[in-house]
Write a structure and sequence with these properties.
With 237 residues, the protein is an all-beta fold. The protein is 0% helix and 52% strand.
């Protein structure tokens, strides 16, 4: 098993006033030639958006874009007629496909919004653009994995145009959990949303991440209560 650790303090960051993003991979004005992507995972942004903050309408193509609100709510609109407000506990996915224009805004004029936005290279290019969202019960991820994004019908998750899988868990202190790949030879980018965990003698704290490859399963130990996001992606696509 190969593990590459990225500490929260090592991420790129910018302060636009209304938007304070942290970048796990090169994005916008943060460029690190040694940190462009992890397999098919191209973007992972940890954003803080002030009340009233908004990204105006802008284009995307040939990218699978997943948004996970952590607090507050975000409003999405696109030129295909897609529209939704998603809050913590909800997950949103957009297949940009052959091309789509969309806007994103903090749904509140006063309350801040925090979220992860994640971009994954698609399996098939130039598909018809699509948008979907779903609410997930957080109780269903306590001390077990809750699959939220997957192309596999049996996972009962939001569909993605890639052999990729996203999963969330909330671990009690002292608990262990095993992650088993949904697709052989995929890698997993593991993010500690909060808390502290131990993986292969590596201690990770809130917002630290680990890129794990050359292993189809591994074990995580929670040293405190912890919430985790696992992003499983092909390493070659």
């Amino acid at each position: 098993m190969q593990i590459t650790i990225q500490r929260a303090k090592e991420r790129g960051s910018t302060d636009y006033g209304w938007l304070k993003p942290n970048y796990y991979f090169s994005f916008s004005n943060y460029y690190n030639p040694g940190n462009i992507h992890f397999g098919a995972l191209r973007v992972l942004n940890d954003d803080f958006i002030m009340g009233g903050g908004a990204f105006p309408t802008h284009p995307h193509d040939n990218m699978e874009i997943v948004t996970i609100p952590l607090s507050g709510a975000i409003e999405h609109k696109d030129n295909t007629g897609g529209h939704g407000i998603i809050k913590a506990g909800d997950i949103q996915i957009m297949s940009a496909g052959s091309g789509i224009h969309h806007s994103e805004a903090n749904a509140s004029a006063t309350d801040p919004l925090t979220l992860f936005q994640i971009w994954v290279f698609p399996k098939v290019k130039n598909i018809t653009p699509r948008y979907d969202q779903r609410s997930f019960e957080t109780i269903d991820r306590i001390n077990k994995w809750q699959i939220i994004v997957s192309p596999k019908e049996e996972d009962n998750a939001l569909w993605i145009n890639q052999d990729a899988r996203f999963a969330l868990t909330k671990l009690d202190a002292g608990k262990s959990i095993e992650y088993i790949n949904g697709f052989k030879n995929n890698g997993v980018y593991l993010v500690v949303i909060n808390g502290t965990i131990l993986i292969n003698d590596n201690t990770l704290h809130s917002r630290d991440a680990a890129g794990i490859s050359n292993a189809d399963q591994f074990t995580i130990n929670a040293t405190t209560d912890a919430e985790l996001l696992a992003i499983e992606v092909p390493m070659v696509w």
